[in-house]
User: Fold this.
Amino acid sequence: MAVTATTPAARPSAVTSRTGAAAVTAALTLLVAALAVVDITQGTAAVGPGEVWKAFTGRADAADSSVVIASRLPRMTAGLLVGIALGTAGAALQKVSRNVLASPDTLAVNAGSYLALGIAAVTGLSLPLLASSGVAFLGALAAAAVVLGLSGLAAGTVRLVLAGSALALGLTAVTEGLLLLFPQETQGLYQWNQGSIAQSGFDGVLQMTPLVLVGLTGLLLSARRIDALALGDDAARGLGVPVRATRVTVVVLAALLSTAAVTLAGPIGFVGLCAPALVRPLARRFRAFSRTRASLPAVGLTGAVLVLGSDVLLRALVPADVAVAVPTGVVTSFVGAVFLAVMATRVRHTGASAAPDRLRIRSRAVFLTTTAVLAVVLVGVTIAAVLLGDSKLLLGDVANWAQGRAGRTVGFVLDTRVPRVLAALLAGGALALAGTLVQAVTRNQLAEPGILGVSGGAALGAVLLVTTAPVAGTWSVAGAAFAGAAVSSVLVFGLAARGGFEQNRLVLVGFGVATGTSALISLLIILTDPFNAVKALTWLSGSTYGRTLPDVLPIALVLGVGVLVAFLRRTELDLVSLDEDTPRLLGLGLSRGRLGFLSLSVLLSATAVAAAGTIGFVGLVAPHAARALVGRQHARVVPVAVLLGATLVCTADLLGRTVIAPAQLGAGLMTAVIGTPYFLYLLVRSRR
Assistant:
């Protein structure tokens, strides 16, 4: 009787679940169709719904028919295909990794494809679309393998995001270096990297459609194995599922889908993250969506809604002649960044926090020796930076210049080179000190101004001023950078403070804010005058080009004040970096002290960005190396970290000016190439 009583009750529930899931899928299909129809009617040409209908029925004139068939239909179809591919790829990656933040973006798939295509372009080979897709696939797969290998498939969400964002930054820096070194061969690659579904004909769509179908078919055939993995590795093995082979297969299929989307439209950010997250709550109401075979179509349709909806919304809110210049990827990246920041505040447990350093005690002799050696190295690097470049000088030339007796040529070279060297030195020291303060206050060794979005906010403020008021002075740019850094830091620290200032939440929110500011910066650069765009791009690469002595005055003042404050409050820094309870037991105002140190770090980061552009990883590498050399006492960490940061940025700027002279690479690109391996090493070490 118990069985017969239970069975009828279960069947209606299952039927209701399937019916409800089918109704949701049908509603998504209708929504996609409606957005597709609207998207076809939007554009710069005066071709409305009536002309579109005539084009379908063969009654339109040749001009209107050409616009619809050659431009708008391919654009709409590309948006549909890209959304489905990225949505299903993200859902598959999240299921096999059991990580809600896994996606093509957080696995550096786009950056891997970007670098692979850049290397192929440098060779001068003109590859057809399918061959380019194969090259991009290899790059994407290699990047995903590195991120998954470093973070672990089932590791905490923060480790995956950190590994992916760090690797993406390093790979993108290498690619941008190739763009600067080989401008002729890589022409058009930067514009492709912004992500746009605009097409000229159906050739690309027709060639990528079979790849998407292969990826989707493979995922659907693997659906039962994917569902088994959701039960846990041991349970899946008990059901006879080859765990490792299944994961590798799914990652390869997801990379294939992502590559098809990237090849067709460039990187369209965060669709693979948002689409599965929007469908996931439906599984609580309709149990059919908890199965991969039912959820994948819904996720794919949701991805199409995000891509087409972003394109429709952009063209509805912005004039047509402006909207055509704004890539769809910029819009989806900004929406996804907001989504990630909000999502991070709701994730209760984001993985294990970074383990604190062991308490290292170094002798005074070690500290003095280390400081002396670093000071000598810094002096040597500074002298080399002043003497070397596109024009090589002697120490006598510098002495004559200092006494006002140099010739016109030598005077011109040193008048432009010395401020650059000073800007690099001071920016490196300021970023190192800012990173030291942030890591001490948050007790998170993976925190630094760039990762937490503070540098991105400063860059956004400065770029906004540079693109709207090109004649703005030094102090104006510094003020705009500080305002942007202040706003972004309030967002990051305010959102992360919810629920007890959890360390990994801080990093995730910071990553979201950093991505959002990057999208807004791209939008400003696209919409501004080309002259201002080149100026902003050069500045964003971390270049000290064109700096003058008045430009370095703000950062010199702020760095001097920062070092003095850090030294005077060194004991408080030591206590704050230990735990929450010790400072309170000793009567220290923890919240007030934390706010003061964070405000100082924001000011340091903003002035560094204003003086030398966006330079990443210095605030991470320098404090870590300083603690490894002289221990954890901030009376010793601060001077050593400042010396290391100044040396690192000055060396990067020197290499960027001399290795390929007269061409130049920004110091930010060089520090990203240097800092990325070190950051990944820290992740591996903390995993051990």
User: Anything to note?
Assistant: Residues 47 and 467 are 33 Å apart (CA to CA). The chain has two domains: 22-346, 419-687. The chain has 30 helices and no strands.
